[in-house]
Amino acid sequence: MRLAKKVFLGLGLIALVAFALSSWAGPANGTLVEMRAYSFPSYEKVEGIEFFSGRSEYDAAVKDARYEFRKLIYGSDNLKVVAYSTSRRSCHLTPSP
What is the per-residue DSSP string for 50-85? Predict the structure, then answer.
């Protein structure tokens, strides 16, 4: 009876550990966890930006409505990975006569 109790407890512990590990695992490879619009920080908060751009150029680029900039979080090797995506917004063109 004592051996059966030990076996039962051992199997229960293995099942508990397996459940815990599976619930702690990160997202599967390629799984998109989150996608949202990216909000650019103000010019003053970007360290070293003055080497690359002036305030007016930075503000114009950030406010350029022709482009969308997104922050993506996806799964890779059970880790969450952050990526950024930019694309041109679709525009509705009217055909020429």
Answer: GGT--HHHHHHHHT-TTEEEEEEEEEETTEEEEEEE
* Pairing status of strand 32-37 against strand 79-88: unpaired
Question: 19: phi > 0 → left, psi -120 to 50 → alpha, else beta; which?
Answer: alpha
Mean pLDDT of 59-75: 91
Sequence letter at residue 66:
R
Taking the alpha carbons at both ends of the chain, their separation in whole angstroms is 92
* Both structure tokens of 35: 């996608």
Extents of the domains making up the chain: 26-88
pTM over 0.70: no
